[in-house]
Design brief:
about 290 residues; alpha/beta; binds nicotinamide-adenine-dinucleotide; Rossmann fold
Length: about 290
């Protein structure tokens, strides 16, 4: 679809990281941007920065895991702007789960699923019927991850399961939109190809009390900086992809109606091949045997 001034983009998880980069890029393309996020201080700061740059901005505190709040967001946006052209269901969290699956705190699963899976579903339900009824061209971008979206990541298994769900949900959305000959497209985003310097490693800052850990963590949370130092000390190279590059990939992908927003990467391709081969050959997933938990 065309992206042009006067259109409206809604981005969840827009106060930080990839979401903020998406909002900035849409604003630079002339779109009005709606920033939705659960973290009010960061949200206000993000909105103020965009307004200072001349963008048309509306910010609203929303917990995407709570259906009523996402529906209220959609009501608010349609009252103000009358249309939505781009919807980025981007908000997401790392679960903070430790150890083996059978040792996990169920609240880690509930919280991660509420934000990463239900949050995307709530966005689809609240916005897509109105986008279709509006009759304009539109696009929905759901943020997955190579971790789970491409292949399981046993060291972050809960997160990976939620991100696998986002891929399958978006494939279903695509099929349903095509079956209706809709003017609304759908894409699944795999940010990368490298690591990103975002707040994802500090996801616990937004963890709600209703999903508090039922027992303390055995090990403290590790920051991105600590992880990076440890990797470098162990002799590994660590590359980062700028969030602006991810936003550029999304804008190009919307313009090209590209379902798989999957950057070129030998590493991703290797994982896809290994997993596909294992399934096609009915062979056990030996590519998962080298993972060691912390
Ligand atoms: N950082 C990476 O390396 C990476 C890689 C692949 C995928 N992703 C995905 O990209 C997306 C954006 O993450 P990021 O890396 O920019 O991290 P981030 O923490 O910088 O941004 C996530 C934003 O989501 C918001 N958020 C958290 N819970 C929310 C809720 N319940 N309702 C509304 N907003 C909520 C946070 O406040 C934050 O502003 C996530 O879906 C994440 O899983 C990130």
């Amino acid at each position: 679809m065309e992206l042009r001034a006067g259109q409206v983009a809604v981005v969840t998880g827009a106060a930080s990281g990839i979401g903020l980069a998406l909002a900035r890029r849409f604003a630079a393309e002339g779109l009005a941007v709606v920033l939705a996020d659960v973290e009010d201080g960061a949200l206000e700061k993000a909105a103020a920065g965009l307004r200072a740059g001349g963008a048309a901005v509306h910010a609203r505190v929303v917990d995407v895991g709570v259906r009523e709040q996402v529906v209220a967001l959609a009501d608010d946006v349609y009252d103000r702007f009358g249309a939505v052209h781009v919807l980025c269901n981007n908000a997401g969290v790392g679960s903070g789960a430790e150890g083996h699956l059978w040792e996990h705190d169920p609240n880690d699963w509930k919280w991660a699923f509420e934000v990463n899976v239900w949050g995307v579903f709530h966005g689809i339900q609240a916005f897509v019927p109105r986008m279709l009824a509006g009759g304009d061209e539109g696009h929905v971008v759901n943020t997955s991850s190579g971790d789970g979206g491409i292949a399981p990541l046993p060291t972050a298994s809960v997160y990976a399961v939620t991100k696998a769900a986002v891929v399958t949900m978006t494939e279903s959305l695509y099929a349903h939109l095509r079956a209706e000959h809709a003017r609304v497209g759908a894409s699944v985003l795999f940010p990368g190809p490298h690591m990103l310097r975002t707040g994802l490693w500090e996801s616990h800052r937004n963890r709600p009390d209703r999903y508090a850990k039922s027992r303390p963590r055995r090990t403290p949370y590790r920051s991105l900086g600590q992880w990076e130092t440890a990797m470098r000390e162990a002799g590994h190279e660590v590359d980062f992809t700028p969030v602006e590059e991810v936003a550029g990939h999304v804008v190009d992908g919307i313009r090209a109606d590209r379902f798989w927003m999957l950057p070129e990467s030998e590493n991703s391709d290797r994982q896809i091949r290994a997993r596909s081969r294992s399934m096609l050959e009915r062979a056990n997933p030996s590519y998962l045997e080298s993972f060691i938990l912390d």
